[in-house]
Design goal:
Alpha/beta knot; 9 helices; 36% helix; Trp Operon Repressor, Chain A; 2 domains; alpha/beta; 5-stranded parallel beta sheet
Length: 251
Amino acid sequence: MRFDVVTLFPELFGPHLTQGITRRAFESRQVEVRLWPLRDFAEDAYRRVDDRPFGGGPGMVMLAEPLERALAAVHSDRGAMTTAPVIHFTPTGRALTQALVRQLADGSGAVLLCGRYEGIDQRVIDRHVTMEVSLGDFVLSGGELPALAVLDAVARLQPGVLTALSHEQDSFSDGLLDCPHYSRPEVLQTAEGPLAVPAVLLSGHHAEIARWRRAQSVTLTARRRPDLIEAARAAGRLSADDERTLRALQL
């Protein structure tokens, strides 16, 4: 799959593409990333890509013409792959969820449009953008961090990038939050006293461990994201044991 990133700051992407476990996906070109510096498509001597908004107000707006030229170049270079969605990152977009990440991971890629300042000229959005995406109910300085989040989330789902089945046990993989995890030492000595790993995890009884982990997942989700519990219940993904765990919480 191929992701084309239109950005004012291509240098932000280099370290991410060459570090960490997800670099396997980028180095193998399972996930191909091409960066398109927006200033390369400005035609004036100052390589200007923004200007004051019509109607007044604070901040600057990214100009339509450099964006139009950049997107035309991307589509021309992609050739037969021009049907890839164009994703614009904005606080007004739909939430980035694991379901959306899986959808992108199963596709052929996308064009990632990274805005800055007060945003981009609405005419570009109306003409080209397929989907607007947000990381959450907060405002960032630009679309580069959300684009990196998408690339990381998609890359880790590619075959061979993670240990087998690792991503299948992530939070949201089954609609719930993940359970707690522990490793060595079995007893952690702290100023407040020793902290032991839950005994069930040391029992070697795989069925009991699986039940404990499921109960922990249900409990954590109910306390922190009750909306996910309701969605899982509506989809028929909660078992009788899950419902017993929820009743015992008395939330």
